[in-house]
């Protein structure tokens, strides 16, 4: 009997240990800036962090130079170590509120700047993963103020959105490049109403470009959405996403294939809470609002990043008596959500987080005051995206190749490997025996290499399935068997 009790106790302890480990993958906070001046992540819903493979790129603004300038920092080992700070702007005027996106080895940064006597949108690119940088490029040209830009890049397409008041009120404007930021098309006005439209966020999937913002045309702040299906050449109608008597603020958006995720905060519940909404058909129709937070304190300024069926959200929250960074994820494309996870724990305030995902790693950056002045901090979860893509070999393959999944048959997990010989947009999708798409495993731009991605068939019945890899002109499909 004593042996049985001992065995049960051991099993209980081991189980609790495993549970603790499975929920304790977030590594310690890493301080990215060390200077006596304040450093800030953007007070917008754009991203201050972007990642691709093992490359992680962070941007912020600070005034160590006597005025506010844009700074950049990178990691080439997935956030384990970081290079020194790189100053991206150099003029005696205000440069602030940056946003960053990465496509292959090209890093794109936008911000707004007062060097022209008013706020204008500027852009800068690095063609070699952040080693060297081109000149500043002015994107907006008018005598009014243009601010708070958001950038999204995929392959050679780059889209930037912002708001400005050239029309007598605040409107959303956009600009696109089809050659990786080397040249730019004309500015395009995306909204047209007598109210203010502000704080846009942009994301793209193939030729479909998605923009979300909030405006006051309805007498209070509501979330609106717009899309282009031809790479930003033409745009559909504005779609109102929220409908309540409270105010809805600062939407952030991320896209995976046809699934569009939007998060924001509003005070319909008497205090600011984080909400989520999704479209499963590329923005044509939308599901109901989902409340992600539920506490008596305020939760605000969310940021979302999506990888396949896993959605990651971070925000700032004062349930602990001061502002802390919190995190939440969904592993089924936004249908259900896990518990809130507190990422920071200091007596000072932590503000304005951004999140990015590459492979299995989740990256978060924010600014806080624990050091007596505002500094940039970073945190990573190396296994937070469990079905993420793993780059198993960075040697450049000679040709595209899709391997047979292993094991096969399988129950319920299997791995799929493929070779990519050149940088490009890659899609790996699963279909059932009737040809219906059931999930997307990969939907992003990848550098050359050999990759492996897992699929968990726990929620699907036994049977024959097909997986299809598309990369440029290359298309290949293979059959696999789920046997429970």
CATH architecture type of the largest domain:
6 Propeller
Overall structural domain count: 2
CATH topology of the largest domain: Neuraminidase
Question: Number of DSSP helices?
Answer: 1
How far apart lie the N and C ends? 36 Å
Sheet with the most strands, sense and barrel status? 5 strands, antiparallel
**Arithmetic mean pLDDT:** 90
Give the low-confidence spans.
Answer: 1-24
Model description:
- This protein is mostly beta strands and 484 residues long.
- It folds into 2 domains: 29-381, Neuraminidase (6 Propeller), CATH 2.120.10.10; 390-482, Macroglobulin (MG2) domain (Immunoglobulin-like, Sandwich).
- The protein contains 1 helix and 37 strands.
- The strands form 9 sheets. Strands 2, 3, 4, 5 and 6 form a 5-stranded antiparallel sheet that branches.
- The protein is globular and about 65 Å long.
- Residues 1-24 have low confidence and may be disordered.
Write the layout of secondary structure elements.
Layout: H1 2-22, E1 30-31, E2 39-40, E3 49-52, E4 55-62, E5 69-75, E6 86-87, E7 95-103, E8 106-113, E9 120-126, E10 137-138, E11 146-154, E12 157-164, E13 171-177, E14 188-189, E15 197-205, E16 208-215, E17 222-228, E18 239-240, E19 248-256, E20 259-266, E21 273-279, E22 290-291, E23 299-307, E24 310-317, E25 324-330, E26 341-342, E27 350-358, E28 361-368, E29 375-381, E30 390-393, E31 401-402, E32 413-420, E33 424-431, E34 437-446, E35 449-456, E36 463-471, E37 474-482
């Amino acid at each position: 009997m004593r042996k049985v009790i001992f065995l049960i106790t051991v099993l209980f302890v081991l189980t609790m240990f495993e549970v603790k480990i499975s929920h304790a993958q977030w590594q310690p906070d890493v301080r990215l800036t060390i200077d006596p001046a304040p450093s800030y992540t953007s007070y917008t819903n754009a991203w201050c962090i972007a990642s691709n493979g093992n490359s992680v790129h962070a941007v912020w603004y600070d005034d160590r130079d006597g005025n506010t300038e844009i700074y950049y920092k990178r990691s080439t080992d997935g956030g384990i170590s970081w290079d020194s700070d790189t100053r991206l702007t150099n003029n005696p005027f205000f440069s602030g509120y940056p946003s960053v996106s990465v496509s292959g080895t090209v890093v794109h940064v936008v911000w707004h700047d007062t060097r022209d006597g008013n706020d204008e949108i500027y852009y800068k690119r690095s063609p070699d993963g952040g080693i060297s940088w081109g000149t500043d490029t002015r994107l907006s040209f008018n005598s009014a103020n243009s601010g708070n830009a958001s950038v999204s890049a995929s392959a050679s397409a780059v889209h930037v959105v912002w708001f400005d008041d050239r029309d007598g009120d605040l409107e959303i404007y956009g600009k696109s490049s089809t050659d990786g930021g080397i040249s730019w098309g004309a500015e395009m006005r995306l909204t047209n109403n007598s109210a203010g439209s502000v704080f846009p966020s942009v994301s793209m999937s193939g030729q479909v470009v998605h923009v979300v913002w909030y405006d006051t045309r309805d007498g209070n702040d509501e979330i609106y959405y717009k899309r282009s299906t031809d790479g930003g050449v033409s745009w559909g109608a504005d779609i109102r996403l929220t409908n309540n008597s409270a105010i809805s603020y600062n939407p952030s958006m991320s896209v995976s294939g046809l699934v569009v995720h939007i998060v924001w905060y509003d005070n319909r519940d008497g205090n600011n809470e984080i909400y989520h909404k999704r479209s499963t058909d590329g923005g044509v129709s939308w599901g109901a609002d989902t409340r992600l937070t539920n506490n008596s304190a305020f939760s605000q300024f969310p940021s979302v990043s999506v990888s396949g069926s896993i959605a990651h959200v971070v925000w700032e929250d004062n349930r602990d008596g001061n502002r802390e960074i919190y995190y939440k994820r969904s592993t089924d494309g936004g249908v259900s959500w896990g518990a809130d996870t507190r990422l920071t724990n200091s007596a000072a305030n932590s503000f304005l987080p951004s999140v990015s995902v590459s492979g299995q790693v989740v990256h978060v950056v924010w600014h806080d005051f624990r050091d007596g002045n505002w500094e940039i901090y970073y945190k990573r979860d190396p296994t937070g995206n469990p079905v993420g893509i793993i780059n198993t070999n960075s040697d450049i393959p000679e040709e595209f190749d899709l391997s047979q999944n292993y094991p096969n048959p399988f129950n319920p997990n299997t791995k799929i490997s493929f070779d990519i010989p050149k940088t490009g947009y890659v899609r790996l999708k699963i279909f059932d025996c009737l040809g219906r798409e059931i999930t997307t495993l990969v939907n992003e731009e990848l550098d050359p290499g050999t990759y492996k991605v897992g699929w968990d068939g726990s929620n699907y019945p036994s049977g024959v399935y097909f997986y299809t890899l598309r990369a440029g002109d290359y298309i290949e499909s293979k059959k696999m068997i789920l046997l429970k």
